[in-house]
Amino acid sequence: MAAEPTECVEPQPARGRVRRWWAWTPLFGLGVAVLAGAALRIGGQRTAAEAIWAAVTVAALLPAAWSMLRSLWRRHFGVDVIAVLALAGALAVGEYLAGAVIAVMLATGRSLEAYAQRRATRDLRALLARAPRTARRRGAGGGVEVVPLDQVEAADRLLVGPGDAVPVDGTLDEAATLDESVVTGESRLLQRAAGETVASGVVNAGAAFGMRATRNAAQSTYAGIVRLAEEATAHKAPMVRLADRYAAAFVPFTLVLAGLAGLLAGDVVRSVAVLVVATPCPLLLATPIAIVSGLSRVARRGVLVRDGGSLELLGRARTLLVDKTGTLTAGRPRAAETVVAPGGDRDEALRLAASVEQLSPHVLAAALVRQARERGLALTEPADVTEEPGRGVTGRVDGRLVSVGQVTGELPDWADRARARAELAGWSTVWVSAEDAVLGAILLEDPVRPDARRTVRRLRAAGLRRIVLVTGDRPTTAAQVAAAVGVDDTLARCTPRQKVDRVRAEADRAVTVMVGDGVNDAPALAQAHVGVAMGATGARASADVADAVLTVDRLDRLADAVEIARYARRIAVQSAVVGMGLAVLAMLAAAAGRLPPVVGAFLQEGIDVLVILNALRALRGGLRRRAVAPRTRELLARAAEEHRAVREVLAGLRDTADLVATDPASPGCLPAVRETHRRLTEQVLPHEDAEDRQLYPALTEPLGSGEATSTMSRAHVEIRRQVDLLGVQLGQSDDGRLRRDQVPDLLATLYGLDAVLRLHLAQEEEEFFSLDPAEPAPERR
After folding, report:
1. Which domains does the chain have, with CATH numbers?
2. E strands of 373-457, at which residues?
3. Which of 114, 155, 466, 481 is deepest in the core (most CB within 10 A)?
4. How far is CA 174 from the centre of its chain?
5. What is the rounded distance in angstroms from the CA atom of residue 295 to the CA atom of residue 283?
6. Nearest to residue 349, comparing CAs of 337, 359, 340, 360?
7. Which residues on adjacent β-strands are paired with residue 530?
8. Cα(560)–Cα(303) distance, rounded to whole angstroms?
9. Is residue 323 annotated as a catalytic residue, yes or no?
10. Which residue numbers in the chain have pLDDT < 70?
11. Dist CA 686 CA 298 (whole Å)
C-alpha cells in the first residue's frame, strides 16, 4: 500500500499571533487613553483630560484591588498593596495624571508577566505541534501499514520516511540522518549508526530507515515531554515570587514613610507622592524579564524547566543528590570486553551471541547487537529461538545450537578468571555456549558518562557545596563511580524510601536538587526543591513529577541550566535592588515635598526603563563553557571515532597478555605478541601523534591554556616508550618461541600498556571529548 506521512498536529500560526496581540491589548488601550488625555489637556480641555485619566486609573485600580484581596484572603502579602494604595490615593487627591501613569506601569508589568508565562512554555508547546499520531508498521508479510500510534508495541518493526517524526523510542536497523533539534535543542544534523537508540520526536532528515520499537507510545521520550508541556501550560509560573520576598520589608517601610510624610506635613498629597514613586514596577518588570530570559535559554540548551519558580530555586541550589544508573552512568550496558577460550575467536563468539539475541527485547541483548554491528560483524537470522527468563536465549545459528545467558556447572580456569575479573569491576557477564561447550564470555559495563566529572566540577564552581550519590547498586560499584566523578558522599543499596528520606534531610538544610531517571527516582524527585529527570533516556514516571527535564542525553546540560539560572536570578536581584534603591531615594525626596506625584510618576518610568535594560542582560552571558570552533569539533569527532579502533587493539592486547601469562610455551604465543606490536605501531601510535600535532593545539582556546593537554602529551611519550620496549623484547626472541626468562618483563610491558592506554583513553574522553560540540538551536521567534 502507499506510504503515508507520519501524522502530526499542525501548528496554527495565525491564531497564535491573534492570541499574542490580544494579550497586549490592555496595555495598548491604557496607553492610547493616557495619550488622548494628554492631547485634550494640551488643547485646553482639562476637565475631559482629567476624566479620561481618572477612568484609566479606575480601570487599573479595580483588577489590582481584586488581585490584592484574593492574595490577602490566602494570607499572602505582596507588593501589589503599594500599587493599590497609590492608585486609590491619586484618585482621592485628584492627581489623575499620576494615577494614569501608574496604571500604565502596572499594565506593563502584567503584560510582561503574561508574556513571560507564554515565553516560558512556548518552546514546550511547540513540541505539541509536532507530536506524531500514526506510525508505519511492517507486517508479517513484509508490507507496510499505517496504524494509530497507540497500537504500536515494543518489538514492532517500523519504517520512518523522509521528513517523518520518529513515533516511539527504538533502535535503528540501519544508519540514519536525524534532526534532533525539536527534542534536544541541537541545530546540526546527526548521523546515527545501525543499532543505536533513537528517541521519539526526532525528525528523519535523510532517506527512509527501519527501526525496532523498544517502548510503546505512552512510555516513549516524546510522550513524557508532551505531558510536561501540557502541565507547564496549565501551571501559572510564579514570576514575581522573588519580588514578594522583598515586599516583606519594603511594603511596611513604604507605608510608614508615606504616613509620616503626610502627618508631619499635614498634606495627604505628600503621602500619595511617596506611594507613587514607591510603586514596585522595578520588581514587577525586572523579575519576569530576567527569569523568562533564563527559561528561554535553558530550553534552547535542551533543559525544559516547568516554571519560573523552579528556575529561581535552581539558581539558589546548594546541594545536589544524583542517581547513578542512567544519570552519572550511561544507563545502557556496553560490551567492555570479550573473553574466549584459548585459541577461540572473539569476533565469532560475539557474532553468534548477537545473532541469537536479535529478537530479544532485553537491554543486554540490545548491547550485544549494537556492539556486533559497530564491529561490522555480519549477523545471521536465528532459528528455533526460545527464551527462558533468568536463564537466557537459545537458538540455531548457521546450524549450531547457541545459548546466550547464564551457565551451570563447573567452569574452566579461563572462565573462572573472567568471572572474577567481572565481579571485581562490577560488570555483568553473559556466557556464550555452543553444543554445551562454553565458547566465551562477554563482559558488559555501564560506563560513567564522559561528561560526568566535568559537570560535577562546573556545578561546584557554580556554587553547589555538597554533591551526594544515591543508588540502589552495590557499595563497591557505587564507590568506583563516586571516585570517578568526585562526589562528597555516597549512599549505596538505597531503596526508594531511603532516597526520599535523604532528600528530605538535605532539603531541610539547603535548597536541594535531585537528578534521576528511573521509576524508583520519582518519589525523590517530587520531594526535592527541584527534581530533574533525564528525559532523553529515563522513565515516564520520573519525567512526570520532575520540575525540569533534560531532553538531550548529556549530563553537562544540567551544569548549563544551573549556571544560566544562577545568572538570571543574579540579574533579577540586581535589577530589583537597584530599582528599589533609586525608588527609596525618590520616596525620601517626595516625603520632603521635593517631588510632586506627577513628576514622581514619570521618574518612576525612568527607573523602569533602567531596570528593563539591565534585566535584558540575562539574555546573554552566564555560561562558563568556552565556545568550540567548527574545526576543533571536527577534530574531536574524528579522534572519538578513532578511539573505537584503539579499543579494538586494546582488546587484542589484553588477550595476548593473558595468553603469555597462562601458556607462554604455546606456538601461537609469540606470533600473537608480534601481531599486537604491529597493531600498536600502525594504529595506536599514529593516532597519538595526530592528537599531539592537530587536536591538542586546537584545544588551547576552549580549555583556556595549553597546560590542560600537557599531561596527555606526557602519556603519549610513555605509550610510545612502552611500545618501543615491546619491540626490543620481541627482537630478543630468535627461535620463534618465548624464553622463560623473557616472560616477566614481557608481561610487565603488556599489562602496563593495557593500563596506561585504558587510563589515557578515559581521561581524553572525560576531559576533551566531553566538551560540548553542539551549538544551541537558534531561538524561535
Report:
1. 334-445 (3.40.1110.10), 630-767 (1.20.120)
2. 383-388, 392-397, 400-405, 428-434, 437-445
3. 481
4. 27
5. 18
6. 340
7. 513
8. 9
9. yes
10. 1-23, 76-79, 109-110, 112-131, 181-189, 219-248, 279-285, 361, 363, 389-390, 518-520, 535-544, 626, 706, 734-736, 772-781
11. 40
The pLDDT of residue 683: 92
CB 21 within 8 A of CB 143: no
What is residue 241's predicted lDDT score, i.e. its pLDDT? 53
Q: Are 622 and 568 in contact (CB under 8 A)?
A: yes
- Separation of alpha carbons 106 and 469, rounded Å: 46
- Given this model, what pLDDT does residue 680 score? 93
pLDDT score recorded for residue 96: 81
Beta carbons within 8 Å of 158's beta carbon, 6+ residues apart: 135, 136, 137, 138, 152, 167, 168, 170, 210, 211, 212, 213
Nearest to 596 by CA among 269, 259, 256, 258: 269
pLDDT at 734: 66
Task: Tell which residue, 241, 178, 242, has the closest CA to residue 208.
Answer: 178
At position 42, the amino acid (one-letter code) is I
* Dihedral class, residue 426 (left if φ above 0, else alpha if ψ from -120 to 50, else beta): left
Could you tell me the sign of the dihedral formed by the alpha carbons of 551, 554, 558, 563, in that order? negative
Give φ, ψ of 165 to 5 degrees: -85, 140
Q: Which of 307, 323, 473, 655 is catalytic?
A: 323
* Angle, vertex CA 334, rays to CA 179 and CA 641, nearest 5: 55
Using CB atoms within 10 A of its CB, is residue 473 exposed (0-12), middle (13-18) or buried (19+)? buried
Angle between helices 268-278 and 556-591 (to 10 degrees): 160
Q: CA triplet 442, 448, 449: central angle to 5 degrees?
A: 120
β-bridge mates for residue 428, sequence order? 444
Report how far apart the first and last C-alpha atoms of the chain are (Å, whole number): 40
Residue 403 DSSP one-character state? E
How far from chain centre, in Å, is Cα 267?
Answer: 59
Reported pTM: 0.70
Backbone angles phi, psi at 553, to 5 degrees: -80, 60
